[in-house]
Amino acid sequence: MALLTLADYESTAGSLAAWPPGVWDFLTGGAGTESTVTANREAFARWRLMPRVCVDVSVVETSTTVLGSDWDLPVAFAPTALHEVCTRDAEAATASAATALGVPMVVSALSSRTIEDIADAAPEATLWQQVYLFRDRKVTASLVQRASAAGAQAIVVTVDVPRPARRLRDIRNELRFPPHVQARNLAASTGRAPDVSSPSAHTAEAMDPSVTWEDVQWLTELSALPVLVKGIQVGQDAEHARRAGAAGVIVSNHGGRQLDRARPTLDALPEIRTAVPSGYPVLLDGGVRTGAEVMIALALGADAVLVGRPVLHGLAVAGKHGAAMVLGILRAELTDAMAQSGHPTLDSVDRSAIHPAPDPALLSADTVPPPAPRVLR
Ligand SMILES: Cc1cc2nc3c(=O)[nH]c(=O)nc-3n(C[C@H](O)[C@H](O)[C@H](O)COP(=O)(O)O)c2cc1C
Ligand SMILES: CCCCCCC(=O)C(=O)O
């Protein structure tokens, strides 16, 4: 079967026989009932595009500029841990794919390769380094310093992991990663290989539940690199991040993997966009799976989006080629959606480009109001 959509890649990746026990569930799953994983996707279904016609779309330009750097698409690779579980070349493969598509890759603090090895493998890649405010701040500072030396162009600090989430699939599966899967990037900053065989145990040990905006401010002053705060879900927190010195925010609920019942990121986006000054970078992740959905996120105020799980599906199906194909599909879909809706460039994609879809609940037969009772005279 031809793989034409990100959903095709997901189903093909899910049917691979090579997954170690529990690992597919780890990639796919979320916290608690996984209501937020589902809600992130459903939020996109509540919007429709408003096509304009008789606009010259003979040339469609998907490029954009974020934090002063040019991207070929308004899409980046979200930070996701341990790409070694998907493909032998791990993050070296991902960085090659990002380079081929002209988009940035956010390297996880828990990547299976060091930032130095990733930069060596893909010298043209635009790399951002994701960090946590670990209990041991020296580890955070070391990751920032090494990323800067390796040529990373920004730091992303993830602030939505105060403690391990209740990921029921992982608990039921008693998830343990195989021993060859290692968080080498982190190990290079701690000086010893952290035990990541149990994600939950590692998170409890390493993450600091006492993080406040003062710690974020400390991070923004640590290096000359711009810092984006990932995990922002309400407008006031976006403003806190900006005041702490962040160069931008990423609207994210960690792909529904931390707080079950958190609202979908797309629903949070307009509030966050209006809480910060115009021109302040606002990125979004969570559930983006088609080019039309990239447009919807941009219309609601995002400067760009990030994709998480689909990149892992591409890596698992066909290594670096698979990750590049996933992004290539998003590029083809976005180009088509822009052309079909009369938007030759991304500048014109604003709130007028979309329309709320009718609420399916209001259309269902059960909810059609009964006729008014006849008045008997
Ligand atoms: C397997 C997996 C590992 C992840 N690891 C990290 C991580 O190391 N750091 C981080 O900030 N976010 C991590 N995330 C969250 C992603 O960066 C992103 O917020 C989320 O995947 C976006 O949703 P999507 O998968 O629906 O695109 C991870 C997500 C998944 C699925
Ligand atoms: C300790 C290795 C697993 C990291 C878990 C990362 C993850 O699942 C997430 O951030 O989500």
TrEMBL record:
Pfam families the record matches: FMN_dh (PF01070)
Question: Where in this protein does the record put region Disordered?
Answer: 187-207, 342-377
Q: Which InterPro entries match?
A: Aldolase_TIM, Alpha-hydoxy_acid_DH_FMN, FMN-dep_DH, FMN_HAD, FMN_hydac_DH_AS
The UniProt keyword set, sorted, is:
Flavoprotein, FMN, Oxidoreductase
Q: Which residues bind FMN?
A: 79-81, 108, 130, 158, 230, 252, 285-289, 308-309
Q: Which GO terms describe its molecular function?
A: FMN binding; oxidoreductase activity, acting on CH-OH group of donors
- List each copy of the FMN hydroxy acid dehydrogenase domain by range: 1-359
Q: Which domain of life is it from?
A: Bacteria
Family indicated by similarity: Belongs to the FMN-dependent alpha-hydroxy acid dehydrogenase family.
Its recorded name reads Alpha-hydroxy-acid oxidizing protein
